[in-house]
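Attaching the record inline, Q. Sequence:
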Amino acid sequence: MIDELQFPFLAEKGHVISLVGGGGKTTLMYNMAAHGARKGWRVLTATTTHIQQPPGEVFAQTDADLFRLWERGSYAVAGTPAPGGKLTAPPQEQLERWMAIADLVLIEADGAKRMPCKAPAAHEPVLLPQCDIVLAVAGTSALEKPLEEVCFRAELAGPLLHVPGNTLLTPALLAKLLASEAGGRKAVGSRRFYAAINQVDTDERTALARQTAELLKKQYGVPCVLTHFEEGERA
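Structure, as predicted:
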């Protein structure tokens, strides 16, 4: 479940939040969207790259679709259908028009091929000018495993962290990756920045996630939220 004490910006209308990284960011995005919809808000989700088509009947292609979803208390997902059951970015004019009338906008701004962490390529992330909050996500399943096995674009992450690809990803390295302006914080600029450690579902993972969160806060000044979603809450 989403907790507004952990995500204080979800208590405020008007934000455009971009999610970057790996480790369950699509699931987190849809759970945040559902939280906003339960409050009676007009919530719009989309991508500036590509995502899996959402579960349930929440996809909106027309203005009629959008308002029908909002009227029934659901969030709406904007996008352009693509091969493989995916969505790519919706038409720019449509997205900007819909964003202007939404109470909350959530956008997945990069991809990670379902891996628990990532380093961004030169073209990533794709942050819209309207975006005012960036949330970098990683999964605890990446911790204590070789970087090259758990990190999307490990060939970029290794040099960024100054370690070889077979190095075990520790909480300190993950914190550095998330907080780096060449990593999770890339292109953030003056936007508000948060981190989320997902997949916190065992005692061991909880301990590792807490270490990572503490390092993010103390060494980098980055607020970090620990999250976990049950099977039925996952995208």
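The helical segments are 25-38, 63-71, 92-101, 147-150, 154-161, 171-179, 203-220. The chain has a mean pLDDT of 94.

More tomorrow.
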